Amino acid sequence: MAPQPLDKVVEFILSPHIFAPLIYPGLLAAMLVLLTLIWAERKMTAKVQLRYGPLYVLKPLGGIIQLIADAIKFMFQEPILPRKADKWVFVLAPVTMMAFTIIPFAFIPAAPGFVGVDLEYSLPLVLSLSALVPPLILATSWAANNKFTLLGGVREAFMMVAYETSLFIAAFAIATYYGTLSLSKIVEAQTVPGIVLNPIAAAIFFVAMLMTASKLPYDIVEGEQEIVAGPFTEYSGILYMLVMGASYMELYVLSLVFVELFLGGWKPVIPALASIHPAFQGIALFIKAYLVLLFAVFLRSVYARYRLDQALEIGWKKLFPLSLISVVWSLILLVITGGA
Amino acid sequence: MALLDKIREALEPLGAKVEEVRPGYISVSVDAGNMRKAAQLLFSLGFDHVVSVEGVDWIKDKEIEVAYHAASYEPELHGVIVKLSTRIPRDKPELDTLIEVWPSALYPERETWEMLGIVFRGHPELKRLLLPPDYQGPPPLRKDYRVVEEGFIVDLTRKQ
Amino acid sequence: MTSPGSSELRGNPYFWYRLMGRDEEGYDVYELFIGPQHPASGHMRIIVRLDGDIIVDAEPDIGYVHRTMEKLAEGREYLKNIPLFERATIIDAANITWGYVRAVEQLLGLEAPPRAEYLRTLLAEINRIASHLYGFGIAGIMLNHSTMFMWAFGDREVWVQLAEDLTGARLTHSYIIPGGVRRNLPQDFKEKALKAIRYMEKRLQDYERIFVKNPVIIARYVDVGVIKAEEAKRLGIVGPNLRAAGVRYDARIAEEYGAYPELDFEIPTREEGDAMARLLVRIEEIKQSMSMIKQILDKIPDGPIFHEKYYRMLPPKLKEFVEQTGRLKLPGAFIRLKPEPGEAVARVEMGHGEVFYHIVSDGGIKPYRVRIVTPAFRNVVLYRYLTRGARFMDLPAIYGSIDYFPPEGDR
């Protein structure tokens, strides 16, 4: 006799409200992305640089679980709290940072009609939640009470306003065309991928994404050659793992949003997969997002780091005017085609 | 040699002793008081930078020889080094700085102060450069500074 | 200036004002100690004083790897100083010892046979390429361009191997000795060298694509850390840093030593004097060095590799060994070289610039005084000159572009 409560539990877990934030596209998938992406980044860079990269942890698969080994090392490392640091902020900021990168998964639709909380305004909500991370980086830099972290914090403050504005405007430019701020409706409305309709907005969103996650050529905040590790100088052990992971998680969240806005989201849907579980219809979304991520991290082996003032110039003098143009372009499209 | 004659003509009124040690290596020695004038004359002859500032501790004569090796970037003076040197007493090693004439002497003078204890009057930053900031003891490049080298065999029976 | 973390400042509303202490010149400065453990180069500290994002002063605090070489040299025989001095610039060991050997040869009144001079020049040029590649790598990683770092260090290995084929040691060759060199040219050396040159020529094109013409590098390097010819002369700068400012000076043409007078090569110069110019001059010098290696291998004369006067001292058995293997055994008397009292100077162009030696001999078996001025020590003043007024993030760009090698500056 099948125990009735267990079915209920399984059903509860498989329901979008739990499955989406915790399993896919949420925590579990994010961890998988984190695990393989960092490995892939190191492997790709190594390929370009004529070396092996991670190798010895699970050698038959090319050291793919290197990050697990690293994580175990970080777990057992002593997290050092500087005596002069503001201890509460110092410890809580990375944890909160990680939380703010995970919460958006509840609002990002993963497959047709499959979303934790379906909101009419999911796009601004997701973007705002990820925009909460930079202030927390500022908090860490202040709390660590160190000259290098302070400089890193100042850099983050400058960068934050430079890219965040353009990121939002570019996202809204494409949303204007579709006439909705709900991510699921935007995907449904996309017959032609957004990148074709509004390539300027797509480019701006991608560059701003790199700046947000401080990936090369914009890894200015963590300029290790001048300021050690920027705001994260004093972190060690599991706290360091959190701050490092948060930037990758943010990149993952934004690349999901990027795919939903510009690359057609989960389309094309393979109906056969829907019979297993509705979340499987989102497999295309995951693959696209992963490719975007791979491209973003591959830039590391090509580019060096821009200077702070140059990055700010790019942010304010190029991205910002271009993002306004992309809004105008969307409006023109709207008038010509009569909307999606 | 034309260059040697030119230097003789310019510097001998100061009481300088000019000689050619080897081809392309001219030695000029003057009194400590005339160093700056001699340096200016050499500079006007085209020796625009200092390769090295150094001291040689002639402990038997109780003197330190301070030498500036000047050279030039001008093509016609390539391959010529002029040593401008003076001897000052070991127990009162003081000299005017020449960094106004040759700014390239800034760091070498600082090093010479540190290594041989020669005080360059007017040098803006005579502070430790290569040695640890808390180094105490005699200037190490003087001959009475003994280097204690650890041998291969350490005599354990010897009393401290 | 009070440190930002001191307890009296906690909770003080004027924290920022106090943090930004004032220095003597009335600047509001933020003092930052970078180093001595640096992710890219290390072994030195730069004390940076910042006014916002602008560097007011960057003071190089060197000496972390000072090994008292001048003092140690006074306590060793002439020959034993060669392995000591090559440790000042381990990446350019042939050039730094050649200067010393030239000075000792002047004191002894020796001259190396022509074949030995060619072999010295050969190793010197191989070392110069390796040294420049090392500099590239550092310059790359200073801008977080890890690909350039890995490529340059990987390709440097080619030249290190070549030097090993010639001398038997990867870095500390101790190859150049008073009166000649210690090994003859190996038989298959020419093919190996030509292969390395072909490889490097291809790689230089790759470098150009990924680094020199990279828009980010152009943005970071052009018009950064500018020094003009007049200032470079006044400050006594040497090496590629000087030639990038438009001064055509090179110890190889100034001193006319080794086989250089017989070789056909150019001294690359540029007028701009910025970080990009320094980079381009180094690339051009690598090309020139490769062309010189080709010429040397074509032109190298036959003959002895060691001075006749000392070669005669070898017992017949050893002479036979030397003839067969091409590996020199030194006569026992060689360790007690006794030059006449006197002094000698010598200059040699290293990868980083010109090295200067002044040896004073009192007629003993040990030098009375040895003065070494390395190119890095002469270029250290550039930190102060180039960084003043630059943006803070230019510091690593400038640091990388002047190719400073701390062990060489500290000696």
Short structural summary:
Chain A has 16 helices and no strands. Chain A is mainly alpha-helical.
Please, could you describe this protein's structure?
The complex is a heterotrimer of chains A (340), B (160) and C (411). By secondary structure, chain A is mainly α. Chain A is built from 16 helices and no strands. In chain A, helix 7 runs antiparallel to helix 8 (147-178). Chain A is globular, with a radius of gyration of 21 Å. The mean pLDDT of chain A is 84. Chain B is 19% helix and 28% strand. The mean pLDDT of chain B is 84. Chain C is mainly α. Chain C has a single domain, classed as Cytochrome-c3 Hydrogenase, chain B (Orthogonal Bundle), CATH 1.10.645. Chain C is built from 18 helices and eight strands. Chain C has a three-stranded antiparallel sheet. A three-stranded antiparallel sheet of chain C has the order 6-7-8. In chain C, strands 4-5 form a two-stranded antiparallel ribbon. In chain C, helix 5 packs antiparallel against helix 12 (275-299) and helix 7 (189-212) runs antiparallel to helix 12. Chain C is globular and about 75 Å long. The two termini of chain C are 33 Å apart. The model of chain C is unreliable at 1-25 (pLDDT under 50). The interface between B and C is large, with 39 and 40 residues.
Layout of SSEs?
The complex is a heterotrimer of chains A (340), B (160) and C (411).
Chain A: H1 4-14, H2 16-22, H3 27-48, H4 66-76, H5 87-102, H6 122-130, H7 133-144, H8 147-178, H9 183-189, H10 194-197, H11 199-212, H12 224-227, H13 237-262, H14 271-274, H15 283-298, H16 308-337
Helix pairs in contact in A: 3-15, 4-13, 5-7, 5-13, 6-13, 7-8, 8-11, 8-16, 11-13, 11-16, 13-15
Chain B: H1 2-11, E1 17-22, E2 25-29, H2 35-44, E3 49-58, E4 63-71, E5 81-89, E6 94-96, H3 106-116, E7 119-121
Parallel strand pairs in B: 2-5, 6-7
Antiparallel strand pairs in B: 1-2, 3-4, 4-5
Chain C: H1 15-19, E1 30-34, E2 45-51, E3 54-61, H2 69-74, H3 81-85, H4 93-108, H5 114-142, H6 146-167, E4 176-177, E5 180-181, H7 189-212, H8 215-221, H9 229-235, H10 240-243, H11 251-254, H12 275-299, H13 308-311, H14 316-325, E6 342-349, E7 354-361, E8 369-373, H15 375-379, H16 381-387, H17 394-401, H18 406-410
Antiparallel strand pairs in C: 1-2, 2-3, 4-5, 6-7, 7-8
Helix pairs in contact in C: 4-5, 5-6, 5-12, 5-17, 6-7, 7-12
